[in-house]
Amino acid sequence: MPWLQVRLAITPEQAETYEDALLEVGAVSVTFMDAEDQPIFEPDLGTTPLWSHTHLLALLEADTDENAVFAHLQLLTGAELPEHHAEVIADQDWERSWMDGFQPMRFGQRLWIVPSWHAAPEPDAVNLLLDPGLAFGTGTHPTTALCLEWLDGQNLQDCSVIDFGCGSGILAIAALLLGAPQAVGTDIDIQAIDASRDNAQRNGIDDARFPLYLPEDMPQQPADVVVANILASPLVALAAQITGLVKPGGRLALSGILAEQAEEVRAAYNDAFILDPTADKDGWVRISGVRR
Predict the structure, then answer these.
(1) Could you name the CATH architecture of 3-91?
(2) CATH 3.40.50.150, domain 101-291, yes or no
(3) What is the pLDDT of residues 48-72, one digit of tens each?
(4) pTM of structure
(5) CB count, 10 Å around CB of 90?
(6) DSSP 278
(7) Ramachandran region of residue 31, left (φ > 0), alpha (ψ -120 to 50) or beta?
(8) Strand spans (E) along 72-171
């Protein structure tokens, strides 16, 4: 069925007030969208940050009187409404639309990331079946792509691997499918741990080959290969810890780094690693090297 979509141009301070008010007048969903393509790179833990210019979109039943909605909003909030608009939109299968937009992707020479609902384009290739779920890491973001391409170029036979900040588990699972006998995953988010475990099982990988830990529970056993696709600030702050997870002669790949942050991250690891030239993709970079 069609829906009445209400759009309000709000500030972050207005978000909770208008969300509550719209739910009170019958909205079945409320969504926040960036009004100016303004990125949020490193939110504080436990927060849901919004952009300085945010669009709030709410869906109500199509026969709802838009004038009555705006009148009630003004009454409930006790203030003049910000810029607002309403229109009737056709219904669609939102889940199917999202699924259709996520297609198989190739990384390097051997590796494909294949949505769990999609047939593999090259059945004989290394195919990682992925259900993105709630955790970050599908291969569509440049930082994940940079790490996958790097892993595809490594000889991982007989190598132990640590995926530091595993998200969906995509990097560790890729390493296992590319020949690593075991990979350890760690993340601060329990949803990421669950998503990683589900994706591993989807690829026929059991807990023995891919143990998963919250950071405080992870054994401090160095590995031959460590990948950390998180963000620049924690990469710098945790440089000593991450370095300690790499065996002498072991390999490290770091990403989640904006191009302008590359030198700061390189400086944090330069003493302990022989670093490769920085690789870049769409304004993001990967820093890799070998432990001295």
Answers:
(1) 2-Layer Sandwich (3.30)
(2) yes
(3) 455 567 888 888 888 899 999 999 9
(4) 0.69
(5) 8
(6) P
(7) beta
(8) 84-89, 105-107, 111-115, 126-130, 160-164
